[in-house]
Known about the structure:
Elements: E1 2-6, E2 11-15, H1 17-21, H2 25-30, H3 33-36, E3 44-47, H4 52-64, H5 79-92, H6 95-112, H7 118-127, H8 133-145, H9 150-156, H10 161-173
Parallel strand pairs: 1-3
Antiparallel strand pairs: 1-2
Amino acid sequence: VVKVLVGKDREEYIIHKQVLTRSSPFFQSAMKRQWAERRKEPNTVELLDDNSAAFTLYSQWLYTGSIPTAEESLREVPYRDLVHAYLLGDKLMDFQFQNSVVTSMIAVEAEYGMYPSSQDIHDIYDCTPESSPARQLFVDFYARAVSNNEDWNANLEGCPQQFLVKVIQVRLDLGHA
């Protein structure tokens, strides 16, 4: 097994090595002998800059292959945790996990009409490349749903300019002003 310490509080997760390395090139490399031997505890990996709520979702996903669905309490998973989970997946190079997170984001929008906040959008834009599926997803969410009312205007305030331009472009492509 591997001990993974996450966040400033060093929350401890114990995960089977085969499970941890199955879809993450990051963990595959971290557990190679030449890297493991350099650590004080070879079977311990520290992710001290990462979010423990996001890693909890990741560890659940590793064993179940899914993030809670809309029918199974996804409403109780804060959107921020999904954003942090997506970014964790990016760091771990676990694209299967990222795809599951995107699927969960779509389920949250479809089931509950919940959208990413301007802070969520900033986090994705600050930490992912332009080609990121999460960026496109957030643009699509807002391009479809945005309207000219105060609630939406408040949602859009503080969003990255690059995001706002993409939303306008998609709305124009869809024939909306």
